[in-house]
Amino acid sequence: MLEVDRSTPPTLYWHGERFRLERLPEGSRVIYAPEPIDPLEDPSAAIRRALQSPLGDKDPLPALLRAGMKLTIAFDDISLPLPPMERPDIRQLVIEQVLDMAAEAGVDDVELIVALALHRRMTEPELRHALGDRIYDAFAPNGLLTQHDAEDPDALVHLGQTDHGEDVEINKRAAESDLLVYVNINLVAMDGGHKSVATGLASYKSLRHHHNPQTMRQSRSFMDQHHSELHTSNWRMGRLIADSGVNVFQIETNLNNDAFPPAFSFLQKREWEWSVKDRLAYLGVSKALDRTPAKYARQIFHSVKAPHRMTAVQAGEVEAVHAVTTDNVWRQQGVTVDGQTDILSMGLPYISPYNVNSILNPILVACLGLGYFFNMYRGKPLVREGGVVIMSHPTPWEFNPVHHPSYIDFFEQVLSETTDPIEVAKGFEESFATDPWYIHLYRTGHAYHGVHPFYMWYWCAHALQHLGGVIIVGGDPAAVHRLGFRVASTMADALEMAQDIVGPSPTLTHVHTPPILMSDVQ
Amino acid sequence: MKALVFERNLPRFAASRVASVFGSGRGAGIGPLQFLDALPPEVPGDDWFHLRPLLSGICGSDLATLDGRSSRYFEDIVSFPFIPGHEVVGVLDDGGVDHAGTALPPGARAVVEPVLGCAPRHIQPPCPQCGAGHYGLCEYLAFGDLSPGLQTGFCADTGGGWSAAGLVAHTSQLHSVPEQFTDEDAVIVEPTACAVHAALSGGIEPDDTVAVVGAGTLGLATIAALHHLVRPTTACTVVAGAKHPHQRRVAESLGADTVVPPDQLARAVRRQAGSLVLAGRLTGGADVVFDCVGSSESLTQSLAMVRPRGRVVVVGMPAKVSVDLAPLWHRELTLIGAYAYGTESGASPTGERRTFEMAIDLVAEADLGSLVSAAYPLDRYEEAIVHAGAAGRRGAVKVVFDLRHRKGPKR
User: Fold this and answer.
1) Which of A136, A161, A157 shows the shortest CA–CA distance to A147?
2) Which residues pair with A519 in a beta bridge?
């Protein structure tokens, strides 16, 4: 963490597909992501070791495999990791070894399922990237690589209700397999654990019990499993799934913070550490982007593949595995921060979990800032109650109609009526969730489910309740106002506007992310 | 006394049409409309009365005529030169008798039901349509004692509302103005009557989804008519498209359930009706669509958002349009014209009621006089017509001529 003084160079802000340099007031704090930790020297050997030496009450994977059994391998979808990683993807590395072991044991009945919950279906190139051509070509043509369909009643099974009355309905093939191997990529602390199966392979009937504004307001934060109602609910469901006889062998992986290739090396460094080469790279990239139409700049960024490297892999019983995974996440991303701030600023990049190869539309802008970045804390939020979040992003009134059709209607019709998450849920959720057109597009195209924009808005519920105001620097005024936020043309204007809310001489903290960091606020 | 006279003059007509490319009404100063001295028209019979206009509206059909965009269909049912102005509230300086036979004293105000059907033309027996009370559908608009003219304001013999010299109205055309009505309330009665007739023509059934395309005077009055005349007996959801913020506010206040910009209307209807989408068209859609614009675009939009066997009610005056009618054929749609007014059956416990009388009640109930946004003296007709042509963009709804000898625009 840096305290800004007179000698501090301007601070880099992400601004969608652009960058801004902002000179912050003296005394401001800038929190940087920790350096990437050393990756595993031999990931394949580490994976093999993890499969053969599982954590918790679980036999080694080879011992669980036998001829004649039904094996299902489920894996995280396009939302992870961010940006998508260079080939070979971790999922490919892990699944190849699982398949090798299955082959050795003579297992014939093997199916792969993308655990996409209510996300969009992945395209063939995206699947080939995640799994590698060999796996794709072996499974997809035979119908053995499927994408979870939360709207296919014949492909779902209701396992019962938790003691809190929560329906647990998940993918039938996964539930009825002799063994369900789940392959996870843990980019943030929210991922993994029981959430992998209880959310990734669930139906709307099941998801609505924890994907709602009440749960999200009681998840403080949803990045901190032990204080997250989202996780408490998923854990209840996960235990019911286990008690129902579903044998889950969980494989979780950790990544380091090496998120950008060498051309963007300046993004991985503190500004005062920039070498001449970094400065030149920044100047070259930012000037080129400034001259590039947003559409093409977006294409350029979405073609970027991250040099993420695996730092750990653990396998076995879900809870035992996830405890280690979470510790590893904190080891890579954790930053201790002393006290809260009046104003929290953040530069939002072009990408979130829900717009890979797509547009970061205004709802996703809100979700990235107020859902994700705001919630990247343990203890208490970085910004005090009644404080202000300043986000930097162009926030265009622009949507991808293929990926986000219901987002368009949500933005046009729902947010024009109310931005209160409770009212949004009460008045509109069911009609969007059951809209036959959205269901059709989710099942047959590459559209997020009709209810998905609601979830994105619920993701903001804790922040919206906590904050005194939200300001977007450089945003499209119409879109920003529709979100219920204020727009400022410069950071200086935003800071002045923020003072109307938090009072004079406020403290300012900037989270310099991505790469991702998690604040442990003391 | 001065009047705005529309003459048949082909060069001026062409000039006006060219000028209208730059905006509706832009050709008012160079077109067939001329600001001339005029005398009060002769009364065509004992059952006709002189009316001195107080306010006279500028209607979409007037603008289309001035812009040279109206259909040649009307050529034989108008007579030149005519004085436009069919939305009129005026004073009967010498008194008169209204359509119901009630004597109106000198100085009484009246609004004109402008259709020139069989009664004003002294045609006996009346045509079957007039005999049935459907005066707007009169079969003899070019016959009888009057020159051709579908309405006052398009007939050489009657004068029109855009004249300080006044006009003449047949007893069957006169409706007395309630005492509590402002002149603004009264001048909005005629377009409101069109909207009432349209709303009642839609054949709306319980729980229907109804879409309204266009939020000018006709669109807004149609929303009011649906809310006050249809909904009390037939619950329906009204989704409206409105381009400008003030139109959206008014549409909501008049009873539309959902109001969205025009480019979002199909999506809003789709959401309401739970339809799928195929090649940009809704597979299901609204049960009834009111097209209150009447252009190729609005008709195409209406046909793309109505359900199979649904109804599209054409309320705005169309001209020659280019529309793909394949969906009309394939989806067995019904295209309904809704012109003017007359008598509405089933509109009262006793059976029938004049549309104009229902409109007068609706204006009072929905405060439609507030739709009058700007008033100009006659000599500033060019500004007035340009303002009317850009009403939506300039935050206005209805622009009128004020012949009450005030100076300057109302606001």
Assistant:
1) A136
2) A335, A377
pLDDT above 60 (res B411): no
Task: Say if A224 falls within a structural domain.
Answer: no
Per the structure, how many domains does chain A have? 2
Q: Does A16 share its domain with A50?
A: no
B275 and A408 within 8 Å at the Cβ level: the answer is: no
How far does the CA of residue A436 sit from the closest CA of chain B (Å)? 7
Structural domain containing residue A91: 43-155+171-202+243-255
Question: How far apart, in Å, are the Cα atoms of A224 and each of A337, A378, A467?
Answer: 16, 6, 19
Task: Express each pLDDT in B246-266 by its tens digit.
Answer: 999 999 999 999 999 999 999
Q: Which letter, b or e, does each residue of B154-177 get, where b requires 16 or more Cβ atoms within 10 Å of its Cβ?
A: bbbbbbbbbbbbbbbbbbbbbbbb
Residues A286 and A181 in one domain: no
Pick the residue from chain B with its C-alpha nearest to A405: B267
Name the token pair of A286: 């930012």
Distance between CA A313 and CA A311 in Å, rounded?
7
On the question of pLDDT at B14 being above 90, the answer is no
Answer whether A333's CB lies under 8 Å from A501's CB.
no
Task: Give the residue among B319, B322, B320, B302 at the shortest CA–CA distance from B311.
Answer: B302
A109 and A55 belong to one structural domain? yes
Over residues B224-233, mean pLDDT: 97
- Architecture (CATH level 2) of domain B2-187+367-402: Alpha-Beta Complex (3.90)
A374 falls within a domain? yes
The CATH architecture one would assign to domain B194-344 is 3-Layer(aba) Sandwich (3.40)
Kindly tell me if the per-residue pLDDT of B59 is higher than 80: yes
Inter-chain CB proximity A436 and B260 less than 8 Å? no
Query: Tens of pLDDT along B348-374?
Result: 566 789 999 999 999 999 999 999 999
A391-409: pLDDT as tens digits: 999 999 999 999 999 999 9
The single-letter code of the amino acid at B135 is: Y
Question: How far is the C-alpha of A336 from the C-alpha of A338, rounded, in Å?
Answer: 7
Pick from A194, A222, A255: which residue ends a domain? A255
Across the interface, whether the CB atoms of B268 and A437 are under 8 A apart is answered no
* Residues above pLDDT 70, as percent of chain B: 97
**Quick check: B123 pLDDT over 50?**
yes
Q: Which residues of A touch B264 (CB under 8 A)?
A: 412-413
Confidence at residue B10, expressed as pLDDT on a 0 to 100 scale = 83
Residue B407 has pLDDT above 70, yes or no: no
Minimum-distance CB partner of B271 among A416, A435, A440? A435
Q: Which chain A residues have a beta carbon less than 8 Å from that of B267?
A: 408-409, 412-413
| Helices and strands, counts by H and E, chain B | 12, 21
Domain boundaries, chain B: 2-187+367-402, 194-344
ipTM of the complex: 0.77
CB contact under 8 A, A435 and B274: yes
Confidence band of B280 (pLDDT split at 50, 70, 90): confident
pLDDT in tens, A402-448: 999 999 999 999 999 999 999 999 999 999 999 999 999 999 999 99
If asked whether residues A351 and A459 sit together in one domain, one would say yes
Q: Which residues of A touch B275 (CB under 8 A)?
A: 437
Chain B partners of A440 at a C-beta cutoff of 8 Å? 276
Report chain B residues whose CB lies below 8 A from the CB of A436: 274, 276
